[in-house]
Amino acid sequence: MLRHEFQPGRLVAGGFLTLAGGLYAGDAGGLWDTPWFAVIPLVVGGLCLAALAGTVAQAVRGRRRKVPAGDGEGGHARDPREDGHAPGR
Prior knowledge:
Elements: H1 8-28, H2 39-65
């Protein structure tokens, strides 16, 4: 069972920022030479892709969450304690 909902925007942003950190770590370790300005397009492009992925995911979730007017909550019984109107109060 999932403990939280999947957020693809954060996954994409984290991947690009990890890649940028790896580039600088390789430069610091002497494996290659990374110019200081090379990571800027990588980070900005990754953040733009993350925003796009998050927007698309939110649009898909919003479309799936819409329930027809007479259906209630997907046919599940409602717990009267949720709204504070439980019998006997």
